[in-house]
Amino acid sequence: MLTLRAAATRGLIALPLLVGAVAAQPVHAAQRTPIHHTVTHHTYTVKEVKGKSTSGYVFYPAALTVAPGDTVVWVDDTKNVPHNIVGVGNSVINRAAVNGNSYSLTFRNVGTYKYQCQVHPGMVGVVRVQSPTITSSAAARHTYTVKEVKGKSASGYVFAPAALTIKVGDTVVWVDDSGQVPHNIVGVGNNVINRAAVNGNSYSLTFTKTGTYKYLCQVHPGMVGQITVK
User: Residue 111: its pLDDT value, please?
Assistant: First the structure.
């Protein structure tokens, strides 16, 4: 009597059970390596100072654009003149008084947060919270610096360098290096570049689309610049 193995060897019978056993082996899918994103949070300062308003006092800068997780610190720089900070249409910003002290708030949610000082009419401000564009950490991104300095122009001030060529995903940081001289940065033919003031502070913007972005300082004629994104 032939054994099962001997019969199979002579081709008399098949071995479906053995074939089935091979086919039933599980096939493992390749594991994907997760892509980790790094988000850096920033702190911005708003000062309460003397300025042009109905009451003679202003928040400086009056407008800020930040990202979720960023912190804004309000600092009283008016020699103990009484102030408060109250949200307009929101209860997120709410501090009874900051006289001679500071008040910090970390913004968690996207939105536009207007506020005012109830003690001084015309002393108003706004914080715009926008989600940043998150890119893969594997991609090479660069940061470029543009300084606001004294130079040859109609007003005596320039952006240096005045022209930059960068790639999509790169960041440009404007830095006031002119000794607290008032400046702003406003797009020409675009609303991508728009910062009310950068006096003594910095303003950063990550470019997400190709194009040519011209800008100027409205305070100083001839103070112009251009960012080309490829």
Answer: 93
Place of tokens 């001030």: 157
How many C-beta atoms lie closer than 10 Å to residue 127's C-beta? 23
pLDDT, tens digit, 9 for 90 and up, residues 205-218: 999 999 999 999 98
Residue 198 contacts by C-beta under 8 Å, 6 or more apart in sequence?
61, 148, 174, 175, 176, 183, 184, 185
Residues 6 or more apart whose CB falls under 8 angstroms from that of 176 comprise 148, 183, 198, 199, 200, 201, 202
Q: Assess contact for 190 and 207: CB atoms under 8 A.
A: no
- Look at domain 143-229 and name its CATH class: mainly beta
Burial 149-173 (b: 16+ CB within 10 A, else e): eebebeeebbbeeeebebebbbebe
Report DSSP letters for 137-171, one per residue. Answer: TTS---EEEEEEEE-SSSSSEEEESSEEEE-TT-E
Q: Where are the domains of the chain?
A: 43-129, 143-229
Averaged pLDDT of the chain: 79
**Span 43-129 CATH architecture:** Sandwich (2.60)
User: What token pair was written down for 8?
Assistant: 């199979």
- Strand-pairing partners, residue 174, are 146, 203
Task: Give the rounded distance of the alpha carbon of 156 from its chain centre.
Answer: 30
Neighbours of 81 (CB within 10 A): 18
Fold agreement between 43-129 and 143-229: yes
